[in-house]
Amino acid sequence: MPFKDYVLDLVGVGVSAGLTYTFYHLVRAGKEVVSHLKDAPDLEINSNLIGQVAESGGSLIACVRGVVKASDNALKGVARPEVTGVIWRHTIQEHLVAQVMGLWMNDKLTVDSSMSSVPFMLMNKGIGVQIADPQKLDDVTLTVVSEKFDAATNSLADHVWGWMKGVRSTGTQQTEEMLVEGTSVLGIGQLLLKNDSLHLEHADIVPYLITTKSKMSVIEDLEAPIPYIRILGLMTAFGVITFSYRVVSRWYIQWRKDVRRRAEERILEDARARREAQGNDLPESLMCVVCCDLRDVLLMPCRHVCVCSECARKLNPRACPVCRTDIESIQPVFYS
User: Fold this and answer.
1) How many CA atoms lie within 13 A of 139 on its CB side?
2) Cis peptide leading into 317, omega within 30 of 0?
3) Is the Cα torsion angle 78, 79, 82, 88 positive or negative in sign?
4) Cα(262)–Cα(11) distance, rounded to whole angstroms?
5) Is the separation of the CB atoms in 292 and 311 below 8 Å?
6) DSSP code, position 303
7) Are 49 and 66 spatial neighbours (Cβ–Cβ below 8 Å)?
8) Are 49 and 65 in contact (CB under 8 A)?
9) Which letter does DSSP use for residue 264 in this model?
10) Is the dihedral of CA 250, 256, 261, 262 positive or negative?
11) pTM score > 0.85 for this model?
12) What does each C-alpha distance from 119 to 126, 179, 204, 281 come to in angstroms?
């Protein structure tokens, strides 16, 4: 069988193996992150914290809880200037009604999103942990401080055109979110001691988070997708087994056919040599039905002795000339 007949199955093996490795790596990495986060101590921000970090060599993976306070000037809300915070995000979304498989469904499209931040600290009992670069945070919990929805004023032509396109705008929503000063949050990351001050920075082995959730809730959120990724990995692993079985089984079947063909070739060559040694003076009952040479092979499974070895080699389709049964193998016939 030519190599091109195996190409699709080999591609299937490669793709399935690649996905299996990817899912395995994701599950392993997720479990390692959860394990490191579980091992991270919950430290209270107080006068003893600097000594604890110093005893750990000036660096410690930890979880600390404190109140948000800007290091310098805080940001003010646009719609509500009386609200101050340290991280600000403004999002404009267009609300749509889209036709999907004949049904009209609600959808949202982000038109614009802008974000700004200032350095801040997590404070407790007069002690602060500095968050110098908030933009490096993997995730942060923001509070909605203002929300405004402007309904679309669609004309009749707009409705008709939207129906023809399958998409119609229903309005625009502006949302302003902030990490408000005074909010009690949990900080997760690498706690560093720099110039007798504490800094919470990015760590490779745990997520760098500022969240209002508890540590257990964060762990549960990280663990939630792992079983589903493991199931996907098992499915792709089954794909590897399936495609590999197809390749091996097809190769084995072809190998068996080649072995049988070579055995038949030897049988036909031996029969031809015997026929040549016996001569051409044959009774009609022993003559090949095709070329009138000696009938020297047995066709299986029908067991007809009706052709010579040379004609048996050339039969196309590979079927008995007498009963049209498919020929599975050929056996030599010896006359005494």
Assistant:
1) 11
2) yes
3) negative
4) 31
5) no
6) T
7) no
8) no
9) H
10) positive
11) no
12) 17, 12, 21, 110
Interstrand relation of 209-211 and 139-140 (parallel, antiparallel or unpaired):
parallel
Query: Which residue is listed with tokens 């990490």?
Result: 179
pLDDT tens, position by position, 217-256? 999 999 999 999 999 999 999 999 999 999 899 888 888 8
Question: Contact 36/30 with Cβ under 8 angstroms?
Answer: no
Confidence of residue 278 (pLDDT cuts 50, 70, 90): low
The three-state secondary structure class of 206 is coil
Closest CA to 29 of 283, 225, 313, 250: 225
295-319 core/surface letters (b: 16 or more CB in 10 A; e: else): bbbbbeebebebbbbbbbbeeeeee
Q: Are 87 and 117 in contact (CB under 8 A)?
A: yes
If you write DSSP's letter for every residue of 62-88 in order, what string do you get?
EEEEEEEEESSSPEE-SS-TT-EEEEE
57 contact partners, CB below 8 Å, separation of at least 6: none
What CA–CA distance (Å, rounded) separates 154 from 107?
A: 17
Tell me what the mean pLDDT of segment 252-262 comes to.
85
Determine which helix (DSSP H) or strand (DSSP E) holds 230, and give its type and residue range.
helix 226-278
Q: Which two tokens stand for residue 89?
A: 């995000």
Cα–Cα distance list, 268 to 191, 287, 296, 313 (Å) = 84, 16, 9, 8
Q: 265 — phi, psi (to 5°)?
A: -60, -40
| Residue 65 to residue 58: CA distance in whole angstroms | 19
Q: What is the token pair recorded at 135?
A: 């933009």
* The token pair that represents 83 in the structure block: 């609200």
Tell me the residue length of the chain: 336
Report pLDDT digits (tens) over 297-330: 888 889 898 888 888 888 888 889 888 898 888 8
pLDDT score of 7 more than 90? no
Three-class secondary structure of residue 205 per DSSP: coil
Mean pLDDT of the chain: 87
Residues 6 or more apart in contact with residue 191 via CB below 8 angstroms: 43, 53, 59, 60, 61, 62, 64, 129, 198, 199, 200
